[in-house]
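User: quick one, fold this
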Amino acid sequence: MVAAFSPDIVRFMSASFLDFTIRAFLIGVITTFLFDVWVNFAARFLGGPKVNWAMPGRWFAYLLRGRFMHHTIAQSVPIPFELPIGWIFHYAVGVLFAAFTLLLGGPGWAQAPTLGPALFVGISTVLCGWLILAPGMGFGIAGSAFPDAMKRRGFQLMSHVIFGFALYASALMVRGLSF
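Assistant:
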C-alpha cells in the first residue's frame, strides 16, 4: 500500500524546504563574504597568509576528475577557469556549512539564532581544511609542509572562529525574512 500525502502536507514540506534552501544560501553567502573580509584584513594588516582561490579551484576540478592527492597543487597542470571554480567552490562550501548550522540548530534556530551552534560549526570547519583540503593539495595534515605551519594554523583557527561569529550575525540578518 502506498501512503498518500495530503496537499497541505506537501505544500508545507515544499514551503519549508524552499525556506531552508533560501535561508542556507543567504546565510552561507553573507557569512563567506564576511569571512573573506576578515581573511583579507588579516593578510594585509596582521601578516596572515594570502589566499589564492585558483589553487583550491584546481584541486576541486581535479577531484571531479577522480584525483584527490597531489604532490603539491601548484605543480599540477593548471585547469582552465580554476580561479572562478575556486571562488564558486569556496562559496558553495560556505552555503553547505550554513545548511549544516541550520540543521544543527534545529527548527527554531532560523528565527531565533543562538551563538552556540554557529560557533561550533565555525570552529569545526577548520578541520575540513586541515584534514581534507591541505593534505589533498599536498601540504600535509593541517598544512604541516609549510615552514610557517604553526602561524598559518593560528590564523586559520582565528578565521574559522570569525566564520562562526559571521554565521550567527548572518542568521540574525535574515531571521525575519520569510520565503
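User: anything notable?
Assistant: The mean pLDDT is 90.
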